[in-house]
Amino acid sequence: MDGPVDEAIGGDPCDPYDDGVIEIRVTDFAGEVHALKAIDGWRVMEVIRDWGLPIKAECGGACACGTCHVYVDPQWVDKLPPPTDEEMDQLDQIYAVQENSRLSCQILTAQELDGLELQLAPGSEVDG
């Protein structure tokens, strides 16, 4: 599948030897798991959106809405930087928050997050 990473790096998005490219595994609302390639430094919300998964992400990554809410797989929670006070304030205002809830706009891709597993949370789905 060609996608945003393929266009950005000019290579095969499935090539595990591309420098600076990681894989994020995202479970959608139907339970389907998607392996998404991403370049270091992208917001996870952008990766999910740019690969065409149905995530609302109304504020575009400004940490102002909570519509990019995801559940982080428990094995990854402690590997992420802790949420900021601003992110915690947004999480306090949204539906279906769990201990492993994060806003995907506040997670930046990095080599140490290669293999990160997330699930789209209720309230982040696109209306329609």
Automatic annotation (TrEMBL):
Top-rank taxon, per record: Bacteria
A GO MF term: metal ion binding
Cofactor: [2Fe-2S] cluster
GO biological process assignments: P450-containing electron transport chain
Domain called 2Fe-2S ferredoxin-type: residue spans: 20-124
A family per Pfam: Fer2
PROSITE patterns associated with the record: 2FE2S_FER_2
Iron-sulfur in keyword set: yes
Entry keyword set: 2Fe-2S, Iron, Iron-sulfur, Metal-binding
The UniProt record lists the keyword Iron: yes
Family the UniProt entry places it in: Belongs to the adrenodoxin/putidaredoxin family.
Protein name: 2Fe-2S iron-sulfur cluster binding domain-containing protein
Naturally occurring in which organism (per UniProt): Siculibacillus lacustris
Biological classification of the source: Bacteria, Pseudomonadati, Pseudomonadota, Alphaproteobacteria, Hyphomicrobiales
